[in-house]
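REQUEST
  id: r-88c1
  op: predict_structure
  target: Cation transporter
  payload:
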Amino acid sequence: MIVQNLRGGIYMVTALVVILVLILLLPFVVKQVEHNLEYFLFTMGIISVIVSKQFSAELFFHIFKNPLIYYITLAVLIAGLIFTLLKEKLKIGVEKVADKISLRLFAFIIIVILGLMSSIITAIIASLVLVEVVNYLPLTRKNKINLIVIACFSIGLGAALTPVGEPLSTIVVSKLHADFFYLARLIGIEIIIAILALGLIGTFFAKRESGIGEPTEDVEADENIKEVFIRAFKVFVFIFALELLGTGFKPIIDLYIVKMKSEILYWANTISAIVDNATLAAAEISPSMTPEQIRAILMGMLISGGMLIPGNIPNIISAGKLKIKSTEWARIAVPLGAILLIVYYIVLFVI
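RESPONSE
  id: r-88c1
  status: 200
  body:
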């Protein structure tokens, strides 16, 4: 019986690792997967919960009862409708500001302010504002994507400063029975420095292009109401898929990740690039942990969360609006994330 259980466990872990590899690779090599990433992740999520024997009606009821999934979808829908109705006024406003100040300075302000404000207005609202503003800047599509990716790193990091910003910070503060400013004290300096650095990096991509001021070519300028609803539905499917994946990979998290040392935890949590970081935090964070362990876990999650589109909600919203492909996102996000991970590993564990 013990041998059978052991074999079953090995088969399950092996299957989950295969699923993980498929999630990482297929969006980059199969165009149909890349263009239908939400439904692909949803399918992988279903398979993962079946493999890990977590599939049940209760699981689906639990996900459907999660108010966050409706809050995010509704925020995307309402903001989409508002921005669609007011797109001309928004375009004129962005153009006026961009004409009055340096575009590089404007890019720095967008990245830094939205990064810091995301802890108050939430990462969702910050990312919705981001894509609408950047969409009307006089930049090439490539530089718009670069700016969006960098800003999403900033928003993802900044939102963790308070329990208001994103689900990850809410769960951490709740599990540790900490006060409102606990995370700001714990990782505030590291995050603020990272946001300022990202703002400076963003200025290198804010090169004004004459004759380019219209919305990105892949985004229809006359986006209609129907498309806004479709985009909101896709966000709903995306979040549902992340919930399934978080549950499906829970056996691996419980068996291996939570037992690791801080240095290894830091790198192990790069799985946050494809798995919901709130789920990881719920499984890993414990009041018995030292501040150093918690800091390592959080920084690993937050940085890696920006590296791929499924990594966090700002990525999903931005990529959905501007129709950014997985390869386009990863081209800048993976190298940038890798550099940040190495730098902060040195800061946290070497210096």
